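Record type: monomer structure entry
Structure origin: computed from sequence
Chain ID: A
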Amino acid sequence: MPVTRASEAVRQWLGQRTEDDPRSQEILAAQISQIVGRQIAQGTISYLTRGKSSPRTDIVVALEQLLGIPAAWWLERIESAAPSAPSLPDDSSSEEVNPPQESSSALPADDDSDDGTSRANSAA
């Protein structure tokens, strides 16, 4: 999932912390949790800032209230990620593709419920 204008805005907001205004994913998650009435994990914020997931509607509304991020920004994809790590999305997307290919060789254990043709093919 690509980085959106909103996820970049959240990332930048987090990066503007000071001693007087300590900003963190944990603090933002706690603030969102209070608004939406359910527990939001720090990992959710991490995924949002990296473009790994899209927020639920209640989180979009909470981020608009807290940070002033318009809901439409979650639909605006941006090409480049953080200036400090422009190649990370490309590297992680290729890493995400490789593990399933490697793990496909471990499928014979799952093929036990099959008619056995897959096992015969993998043994050949």
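Annotation 1: The domain at 1-82 is CATH 1.10.260.40 (434 Repressor (Amino-terminal Domain)).
Annotation 2: The chain is about 50% helix and 0% strand.
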